[in-house]
Amino acid sequence: MKTGKATVFWPLVAVLLLTDCTSKQLAAERLEPEHVPHEVIGDVLRFTLAYNQGASFSVSLGEHSRWILATLAVGVLAVLLGQYRKAAPHDKPLALALGLIVAGASGNLLDRLRSPRGVVDFIDIGFGDTRFFTFNVADLAVFFGALMLANLLIRRDRDGPLDATSPPSPT
């Protein structure tokens, strides 16, 4: 039985991609019309349907944002998958971080490709009129994957690469 990076990476990508696509579909079907908040946990957590044609925080790259961002996402995915392939066979922490980012980037790429309306966002956190930006499951995956990857790279730069056959030292 395999116990390496593939046992973490591929199931994680599959489950997160399925979860992201399903949650976005449900949001698009049940939260219409756009920009109308639906309280989940009082005013702190709301589901509010929004479509983002731009990059993070709705940053626009002009009238061709959709295709520019889709092309960039494909390039980023190619780099990330290359890093996954180069990773040591038992490097599960790196596989986990890369899997989160690949799943999130893939989910948002699929949204860009399937609809000119943009990426479906619906998770709305804040207090009263002070709101964080509206996001989705894919955004969460990319965010936490990027944090994990940065932490791994910083630790490995500081401590040197871990031997893939030995457990990490407690820190």
Structure description:
This protein is of the alpha+beta class and 171 residues long. The protein has one domain. Helices cover 54% and strands 13% of the residues. The protein contains 4 helices and 4 strands; from the N terminus they run αββααββα. The protein has helices at residues 6-30, 65-86, 92-114, 137-159; strands at residues 38-41, 45-52, 119-127, 130-131. It has a 4-stranded antiparallel β-sheet. Strand 3 and strand 4 form a beta hairpin. Helix 1 (6-30) packs parallel to helix 3 (92-114). The radius of gyration is 18 Å and the shape is globular. 27% of the residues are buried. The mean pLDDT is 90.
Distinctive features:
single chain; 171 residues; alpha+beta; four-stranded antiparallel beta sheet; 4 helices
Low-pLDDT parts are none
Q: Count of DSSP E strands?
A: 4
| Mean of pLDDT | 90
Order of strands, main sheet, comes to 1-2-3-4
Give the helices and strands as they follow along the chain: HEEHHEEH
Q: Percent of residues in helical segments?
A: 40-55%
**What percent strand?**
5-15%
